[in-house]
Amino acid sequence: MLKVNQKQTRKKNIFLSPYILALLDAFWVNAGLFLAFELRFWGNVPDYNIEPFWDIAPWLGIATIVIFSGLGLYEKRRNGYMSVLRASLTGVAGIFMITLSLTFWLRGFAFPRSVLLLSSILQMLLISLWRYACWYLEKKIHGLRRLLIIGPREEKEKLLEQVIDFPRGWFKVHKVIDYTSVDQLDEWLEEIDAVLLVPPFPSEQRARLLADCRGAGCDVFLVPDFYDILLLNARMGQLSDLPVMEIKDIGLTEFQQVIKRIFDIALALLGLILTAPITVTCALLIRLSTSGPAFYTQKRVGRGKRVFHLLKFRTMVEDAEKETGPVLAVDNDPRITGIGRFLRATRLDELPQLFNVLKGEMSIVGPRPERPVFVQEFAQLYPDYHMRHIIKPGITGLAQVVGKYTTSPEDKLKFDLYYMRNYSLLMDFKIILQTIPVLFSRESAGGIKHDASTFIAVYQRPGSGTDGSKMPTSTVSLPK
């Protein structure tokens, strides 16, 4: 019992308060601008310059909190520091644009260009150091938790492949078991700090597992299945005196569809205008470096399972699938051209899809459209796969922001259904913002990995047996 109490006590104050983070983010951003003034004028800033700074400081602080919140920097992040750094630097770049706008309206001549440029450098440095300190402190307070993974025996290969890919430093896999071994759970609960439950699992065991784990003071993480996602935001009601859960439809209301369409058209037009020089440059580079056209179209499945032609920059050799037929790209795919690797890594190959948005075939945010042949395959594996075609596909989406290119179709489907269940215009804004740092993540644009035999071989090496002590892991939670 003493050990249980220690676990429960340690769980308190694990994470820094997001309110404190927000206030100090605003402070460091303004501090960077203030220090830029001090350095520019060697510590003797004229009143003409410093007074407008005090005028914009509150607005700059509010803008910082809004942008950082949209980038997910106030959500729990049990992963590597690089994802935090990418989001933080993206936020500082957004703050630079906001600062330019504010100085234009509020005595812009009081803000020399040297101050604006220097402030961005200082803000990047201060925010990077501050956010690293927060990440490091959170990691130390959290501690390396011993994790028990309970999952189905028949999916052990897939489970191990995902586990070994998790970020390091937050969790250490202590044991991986299936549901036939839960009779020994009481013994293992004394040795672990957290439990990850992976579906599918018997419903009669679910409540007991959750109760036992929480009663032992362990953190519990549940990978949701499609049934769990459908229950999200269900409303409690009654039929006579019978308590029931009323499940709302997945999808957008007519009003939401109209607002989303206006939002899509405005962003697509703005995007095409702003990226016109980039589009022309990419097209020329493709034509000069490879044989074949700069653009290509590919059949994809959209809303209502209607097939449309998706427009992209060509990143593979001409007639890449002539010998193989339709196949997914893999790591180090030899069919991808040199310029194609760059376009894929930066996601610039997706730019022409803004024309698909204007035509009404796609949205800016939504599930990524798949090719008909893959849709047929996935539909056979996952009976709920057709539900993602209730809304228009998107250039970016929740699955692309929180997942990777190598994320399994099943997990991507869960993210897509979660998005459809919880859609709001604010969520679209957040996904668009969070797409920007993803562009600088190499793993987000890589090809699919090969089978899990390599991972299992690692897991079964001497010293990496059933306790899994050499297999660090973390967890992924759906954003709120």
Automatic annotation (TrEMBL):
GO cellular component, one term: membrane
Membrane topology of this protein: Multi-pass membrane protein
Transmembrane region(s): 16-36, 56-74, 86-109, 115-137, 265-286
Residue intervals of the Bacterial sugar transferase domain: 260-440
Keyword Membrane: yes
Keyword Transferase: yes
Subcellular location: Membrane
Entry keywords, A to Z: Membrane, Transferase, Transmembrane, Transmembrane helix
Gene Ontology molecular function, alphabetical: phosphotransferase activity, for other substituted phosphate groups
InterPro entries named in the record: Bact_transf, EPS_sugar_tfrase
Pfam families: Bac_transf
The family this protein is said to belong to: Belongs to the bacterial sugar transferase family.
PANTHER family: COLANIC BIOSYNTHESIS UDP-GLUCOSE LIPID CARRIER TRANSFERASE, UNDECAPRENYL-PHOSPHATE N-ACETYLGALACTOSAMINYL 1-PHOSPHATE TRANSFERASE-RELATED
Protein name: Exopolysaccharide biosynthesis polyprenyl glycosylphosphotransferase
Source organism of the structure: Desulfoscipio gibsoniae DSM 7213
